[in-house]
């Protein structure tokens, strides 16, 4: 056995034969070198031991520490969750397309829900049509009634005219009744060429609607492309409308004579 000193003092090695006593002196430089080697070995050993411990933990199925949440994710919600929530929020806002689709299906309950969710009753689509135009065009009186109760405008014109024009074209008698009851302007023309609802009804042979319009005060003398409603009915061969208009002319003359 032997003992060593790193301070530069002699180191006596015991247990050797008496004839060969020796002193081993380790100077300061040698001591420093030895110290560095010892530290290096200790550091390496520690690193290896720590690495082995981590590997053993993984092999044993131990849980690893997860990365910390980002500053924006302190609640624990990931960015993808936020994106989905944002998308759902945007989708919850009704559009004019949503409302028109509900009208096309005749789904008045969905239409009411969209209005309650912030849908605007007088929104217009790319063609200038409001949901009320579409309700009259598709002969959906229940939806038209919902829209009228929500204060839908009656005088808005799209490419073909007012909602009353649309109702006359598609023979939507119930919608015409609703519009007239709401005081729609019966003699309002479209924005292109002066066509009235009565012209539209007579051109398309809607004699029942023509009678309703006349009773509501439609002017049978107004011109559309230089023709009256009666002239259009004659030209298109709409005899029922022709009869309605001729009867109206007789009554008009009688009223003038009485006056």
Automatic annotation (TrEMBL):
Family matches, as InterPro entries: Ankyrin_rpt, Ankyrin_rpt-contain_sf
SMART domains: ANK (SM00248)
Statement: the UniProt record of this protein carries the keyword Amino-acid biosynthesis: no
Per-repeat ranges for ANK: 127-159, 159-191, 193-225
Residue intervals passing through the bilayer: 18-41
Pfam name, any one: Ank_4
Keywords linked to the UniProt accession: ANK repeat, Membrane, Repeat, Transmembrane, Transmembrane helix
Protein name from the UniProt record: Uncharacterized protein
Species of provenance: Chrysotila carterae (Marine alga)
């Amino acid at each position: 056995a032997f003992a060593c000193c790193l301070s530069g003092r002699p180191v006596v090695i015991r247990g050797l034969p008496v004839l060969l006593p020796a002193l081993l002196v380790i100077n300061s430089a040698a001591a420093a070198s030895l110290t560095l080697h010892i530290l290096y070995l200790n550091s390496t050993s520690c690193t290896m031991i720590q690495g082995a411990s981590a590997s053993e933990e993984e092999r044993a199925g131990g849980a690893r520490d997860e990365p910390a949440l980002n500053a924006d994710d302190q609640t624990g919600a990931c960015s993808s969750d936020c994106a989905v929530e944002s998308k759902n929020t945007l989708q919850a806002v009704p559009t004019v397309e949503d409302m028109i689709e509900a009208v096309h299906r005749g789904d008045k309950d969905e239409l009411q829900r969209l209005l309650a969710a912030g849908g605007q009753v007088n929104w217009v689509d790319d063609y200038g049509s409001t949901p009320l135009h579409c309700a009259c065009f598709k002969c959906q009186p229940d939806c038209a009634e919902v829209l009228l109760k929500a204060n839908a405008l009656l005088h808005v014109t799209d490419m073909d005219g007012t909602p009353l024009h649309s109702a006359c074209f598609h023979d939507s008698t119930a919608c015409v009744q609703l519009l007239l009851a709401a005081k729609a302007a019966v003699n309002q023309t479209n924005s292109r060429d002066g066509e009235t609802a009565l012209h539209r009804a007579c051109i398309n042979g809607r004699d029942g609607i023509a009678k309703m319009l006349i009773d509501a005060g439609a002017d049978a003398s107004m011109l559309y492309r230089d023709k009256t409603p009666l002239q259009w009915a004659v030209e298109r061969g709409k005899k029922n409308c022709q009869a309605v208009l001729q009867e109206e002319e007789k009554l008009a003359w009688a009223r003038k004579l009485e006056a």
